[in-house]
């Protein structure tokens, strides 16, 4: 059993208060992770196990990510970096030792590796658990593998209402990430949460693995907080219905959420999470990958509506997500990722044309390479702020009353197979 189950409770001190009840509310605070040495230590032989299709040029990725953080700061008052947050958390010696013990538990570390970690400062320990820890004998290999997927901070934790949903990652390469998030949120002087009240779901911390034939898989890229009453969750390559049902049972007792709309996605690498094919852009618009969501498509995704209001989970089928959302009072106009050409749709879905993050209703960030998707946004009344314009300008470019797509160059970042939504963990929206 993980020692996390025995950690003492802490009072919430986050200055904004964790609060996310939509995907589009004005962004107040957000967590990110700049591409660090973990992306530069990956070699071709590691790509498959680390879930990458290419190795990244770290310097270019960092430059693009700094621009991304600038765009986020147009709306948000706090743009936090998870490595800095973890390092600050680990300055507490007792917390540091608990964390090392838990890393050892999750990764099955030998005592000599635990001893090495124990000798590191808080800053170097945070760097080691994210950037990797090499063997000390001069041979090539890893005592702790790097975490290049942590760039996509959305996946190991999602804030919903005033609490946190801790991910249960589907692949071994990412199993350390929820642990990092739980410690960051549980013990940071400003972010710390009261466990029993604020951790809405944390199956990862429970001894489930030896008791279940199918392990729970739940990743944040599959979760959309569309309102204070409704979650949309993708059943995907990474998230399964076992975890969704566990989450539903947890939410009955910890939140005011009444409905989960479970989208039955094809289990394909290209469609690994819901946010690769669907994201909200305004109060009445969304970006969609057309084959899965546009009426009359032969590939239209069925939706399971889970009503969790009566103390048990009651399920019914809906023919499509847009229809299911309309029944919940959210009538969305779809904006087509890639436009109407099937080739453009597939190409731009691959480069995250449906993966936008909202700064406020109608103000979104998107990779500039998705030209056909941008054309569709312009048709829908969005003005365009180019990457060059936002790099040269400042916060005055953000005009909440005007629908705007802020373009991010993202040529290097997109090679990691994740977009602006994947790279953000909103902490507070209003």
Question: Can you characterise this structure?
Answer:
The chain has helices at residues 37-40, 58-73, 82-89, 93-107, 111-118, 122-131, 177-187, 195-198, 241-254, 290-293, 321-327, 342-350, 371-379, 387-392, and strands spanning 27-32, 78-81, 133-134, 142-144, 157-160, 163-166, 199-201, 223-225, 230-235, 259-264, 278-282, 285-288, 303-307, 314-318, 333-336, 357-360, 363-367, 383-385, 404-408, 425-429. By secondary structure, it is α/β, with parallel strands linked by helices. It has one domain: L-arginine/glycine Amidinotransferase, Chain A (5-stranded Propeller), CATH 3.75.10.10. The strands form 6 sheets. Strands 8-9-10-13-14 form a 5-stranded mixed β-sheet. It has a 4-stranded mixed β-sheet with strand order 16-17-19-18, sandwiched between helices. A 3-stranded mixed β-sheet has the order 2-1-20. Strand 18 (383-385), helix 14 and strand 19 form a beta-alpha-beta unit. Helix 3 packs across helix 6 (122-131). It is globular and about 60 Å long.
Structure summarized in a few sentences:
The chain is α/β, with parallel strands linked by helices and 430 residues long. The chain has helices spanning 37-40, 58-73, 82-89, 93-107, 111-118, 122-131, 177-187, 195-198, 241-254, 290-293, 321-327, 342-350, 371-379, 387-392, and strands spanning 27-32, 78-81, 133-134, 142-144, 157-160, 163-166, 199-201, 223-225, 230-235, 259-264, 278-282, 285-288, 303-307, 314-318, 333-336, 357-360, 363-367, 383-385, 404-408, 425-429.
């Amino acid at each position: 059993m993980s020692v996390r189950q025995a950690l003492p409770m802490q009072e919430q001190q986050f200055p904004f208060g964790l609060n996310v009840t939509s995907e589009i509310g004005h962004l107040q605070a957000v967590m990110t992770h700049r591409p660090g040495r973990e992306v530069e230590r990956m070699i071709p032989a590691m790509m498959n196990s680390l879930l990458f299709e290419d190795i990244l040029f770290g310097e270019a990725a960092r430059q693009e990510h700094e621009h991304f953080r600038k765009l986020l700061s147009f709306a948000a008052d706090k743009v936090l970096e998870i490595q800095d947050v973890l390092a600050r958390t680990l300055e507490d010696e007792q917390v540091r030792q608990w964390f090392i013990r838990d890393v050892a538990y999750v990764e099955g570390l030998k005592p000599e590796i635990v001893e090495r970690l124990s000798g590191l400062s808080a800053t170097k320990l945070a760097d080691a658990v994210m950037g990797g820890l090499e063997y000390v004998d001069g041979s090539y290999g890893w005592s702790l593998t790097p975490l290049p997927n942590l760039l996509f901070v959305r996946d190991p934790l999602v804030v919903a209402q005033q609490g946190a949903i801790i991910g249960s990652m589907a692949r071994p390469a990412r199993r350390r990430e929820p642990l990092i998030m739980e410690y960051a949120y549980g013990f940071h002087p400003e972010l710390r949460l009261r466990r029993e009240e604020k951790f809405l779901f944390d199956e990862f911390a429970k001894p489930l693995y030896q008791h279940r034939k199918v392990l729970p898989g739940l990743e944040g890229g599959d979760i959309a907080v569309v309102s204070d009453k409704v979650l949309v969750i993708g059943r995907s390559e990474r998230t399964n219905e076992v975890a969704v049902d566990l989450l539903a049972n947890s939410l009955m007792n910890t939140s005011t959420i009444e409905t989960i709309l479970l989208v039955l996605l094809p289990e394909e690498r290209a469609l690994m999470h819901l946010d690769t094919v669907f994201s909200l852009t305004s109060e009445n618009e969304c970006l969609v990958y057309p084959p899965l969501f546009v009426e009359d498509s032969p590939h239209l995704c069925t939706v399971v509506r889970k009503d969790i209001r009566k103390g048990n989970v009651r399920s019914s089928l809906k023919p499509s997500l847009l229809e299911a959302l309309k029944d919940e009072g959210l009538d969305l106009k779809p904006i087509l990722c890639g436009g109407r050409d099937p080739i453009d749709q597939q190409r731009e879905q691959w480069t995250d044309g449906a993966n936008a993050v909202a700064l406020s209703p109608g103000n979104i960030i998107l990779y500039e390479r998705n030209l056909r998707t941008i054309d569709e946004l312009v048709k829908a009344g969005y003005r365009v702020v180019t990457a060059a314009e936002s790099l040269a300008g400042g916060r005055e470019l953000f005009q909440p009353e005007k629908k705007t797509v802020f373009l991010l160059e993202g040529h290097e970042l997109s090679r990691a197979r994740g977009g602006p939504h994947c790279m953000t963990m909103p902490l507070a929206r209003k």
